[in-house]
Amino acid sequence: AAAAGPVAGAVTIGCSSADLQTRLSNAKRPVAGNTVRIELNSCELDLLPRMPMVRGVHVDRLLTTQATSDATALQQAVVQSFDGQTAWPTLAGQSLAGGGRVIAVLDTGVEERHPALGSTKVLPGACFSTAANGGTGFCPNGTSVDTVSSTAGRSCVDRFSSRAAGLNAGCGHGTSMAAVAAMDYGSVAANRGGLARAASILPIQVFNADSRGAISASSGDLLAAIEWVTEQARQRRASGQPPIAALNMSLGAGAYSAACDSDYLGGLFRSAFERLRAQGVIPVVAAGNGGSIGAISFPACVSNALPVAAARLDYSRLASYSNFSSQVKLVAIGGDAVGTYKTPVPCSSTSSTDCWAATMGTSPATAMVSGAVAALHGLQATPDAAALQSALTANLTANDTRAKALTVSGLTVPALRVTPSAERLAGVAATAPDGSSSNAGSGSGAGTSNGSGTSGSGTSGGGAAPPGGSDGVEVIVKRSTRVCVYWGAQYSGLSSCAIARLDADDSPILYSYLGPVRSVSIRDADTNQPVAGRVRVTLYASFRTRSDLSVTQDTPNISGGPFNAFVRSVQVSPLQ
Q1: How many CB atoms are closer than 10 A to CB 129?
Q2: Cis peptide leading into 346, omega within 30 of 0?
Q3: What SS3 state is found at 542?
Q4: How far is Cα 530 from Cα 477, in angstroms, rounded to an integer?
Q5: Which segments of 468-560 does DSSP mark as H helices, in order?
Q6: Sign of the CA dihedral 266, 267, 269, 273?
Q7: SS (H, E, C) 252-298
């Protein structure tokens, strides 16, 4: 039995072995093992090991969300997570946007009324939330399980005395993770979407609050939720509904230097994940935010999970807070003090729905990978979780300059790059964004733990032909345009790109960026050819403001100067 201990300072009271045996017999037994979760008073806790039907007693493990706060935008990380150039490309006739796929999110619930998500993207979900130790469960029907209510999977923010209190407790976390994985907010040209922007979200609220209002999720509720998702996946496959591709678990606790399958609860999770994978669903789990090099959290430590560590926004190094060990299979962008995600959250007032907050951590890194799983899932005629994970976690840096990897304490782990992984999965010959062989040029694309890695900026063909510019004809750009800013002159070093439609009646794009700028390229997003129109590029030393102007230049061809500024945002607009 997995038992929650008595409340500290509780008075010992009498108990009946017959009553306790009845409670044990009636308690829900997860498929993952001959196990029950039950809350006990002090007398029952003493009595439990002596019950003839009890083989062992284990404390239920409480898990927390794995995000922290600090602000920038999501779209840069999405582009970096594909190939550093283009988000949501089409490969083998399939858009890598996750259309027709579902991501299950075990978290604090999802605010489906947020305009970045919307009720059509967020499916009816479920709630597994057992009140313990004088605390509060969050299921809307007042029980510990709700798989029927239309709001069962909604954010727990409304379960507090005020929405502000719920946000302070962390109930916006699930909404943010769903957004990182699959939000669709604004036009594709504005790049405002999660990694699998066309995927659907299946929200499962698994958190509860203790008597102080602190939230956590119990292992018992998580196991029950995983079983429910497994059954939903089976039913969807049998009925031809959009399949569940990934189970996102941006949560965890503890630190394990080796696989935790031998741990009693770890064994239960391994069995649950095994059944989940049999239905084609990959469990993607956060490695944790303890900053430990050599250990990751539970249940990421379960051997058949897909543990995810977090990198800085530019993939230059492991994020300072991220756990990391040989168990980590993939590193994704989670941000750190240099820059963080700004993601949708529930609003503190019911009069508003469109609210955002900064977040960073292995939580959003994990959600990125869950989105990647959904994006790749459509490339398979017959879903094969093992083959998909193999393509996603393969180190392709030796033959593909777009691929990336990070080396930490002598251990190299692949970084999330969806497009090269998709080509590997689909059996498509790898090609660089300019149409040449993707392994042309130099630079491994591998960062290191001390930040010394580069982006692999080798040249294509002969010399440093500008990746941007124009023929100088003053016409308005009508097509979607890719604007890339580079840390180095002549289009070298780390880069960040955004997509915009620079039509005459469009608002100029203004996107977040943090770093030096010494060259800028402007190309057609579809053909990768230099644009024919003239544009103005403006660099600001402040984020999303017009104060503290750094550089403004009208240009048909921005190559190596006069840019030499450390900026926080970039604006691109057509010349009228």
Answers
A1: 31
A2: no
A3: coil
A4: 11
A5: none
A6: positive
A7: EEEEECCCCCCCHHHHHHHHHHHHHHHCCCEEEEECCCCCCECEEEE
Distance CA 87, CA 196 (A): 10
Q: 520 phi and psi, to 5 degrees?
A: -135, 135
Burial of 274 (C-beta count, 10 Å sphere; 0-12/13-18/19+):
middle
What burial letters (b/e) apply to 479-513, b meaning 16+ CB within 10 Å?
bbbbbbbbbbebbbbbbbbbbbbbeeebeebbbbb
The CB density around residue 290, as the number of other CB atoms within 10 Å, is: 19
Neighbouring CB atoms inside 10 A of 527's CB total: 10
Q: Which residues lie across from 71 on neighbouring strands?
A: none
* Continuous H helices in 384-518: 385-393, 418-426
Q: How many residues does the chain have?
A: 576
Q: Are strands 62-65 and 251-256 parallel, antiparallel or unpaired?
A: antiparallel
- Would the pTM of this model clear 0.70, i.e. be above it? no
With a CB cutoff of 8 Å and minimum separation 6, the contacts of 278 are none
Residue that is written with structure tokens 């003053």 in the block: 474
43: helix, coil or strand? Answer: helix
Beta strands in 114-199 (DSSP E): 126-128, 136-137, 145-146
Cα R_g (the chain), whole angstroms? 25
Task: Please write the tens of the pLDDT for every residue from 141-199.
Answer: 888 999 999 999 999 999 999 999 998 888 999 999 999 999 987 644 444 789 999 99
- From the number of C-beta atoms within 10 Å of its C-beta (0-12, 13-18, 19+), residue 76 rates as buried
Q: Where are the domains of the chain?
A: 2-59, 63-423, 480-574
CATH level 3 topology of 63-423: Rossmann fold (3.40.50)
| Rounded Cα gap, residues 306 and 327, in angstroms | 9
Neighbours of 554 (CB within 10 A): 11
* Helix/strand number for the chain, H first, E second: 10, 31
> Domain 480-574 maps to which CATH number in 3.40.50.300, 2.60.20.10, 1.10.10.10, 3.40.1190.10?
2.60.20.10
Lowest mean pLDDT among 45-54, 286-295, 411-420: 45-54
Helix (H) or strand (E) holding 331: strand 330-333
Asked whether the predicted pLDDT for residue 264 surpasses 80, the reply is: yes
Helical packing angle, 75-82 and 418-426, nearest 10°: 40
Residue 519, classed as helix, strand or coil, is: strand
Angle CA 96–99–101, to nearest 5? 110
Q: Which residues of 422-461 are buried (b: 16+ CB within 10 A; e: fewer)?
A: bbbbbeeebebbeeeebbeeebbbbbbbeeebbbbbbbbe
Residue type, 507: S
* CA 411 centroid distance within chain: 23
pLDDT digits (tens, 9 = 90+) for 201-212: 999 999 999 888
**Among residues 432, 446, 444, which one has the least CA distance to residue 331?**
446
Average pLDDT of the residues in 123-138: 89
Asked if the domains 63-423 and 480-574 are classified in one and the same CATH topology, the answer is no
Q: What is the mean pLDDT of residues 40-47?
A: 64
Pairing state between β 306-311 and 330-333: parallel
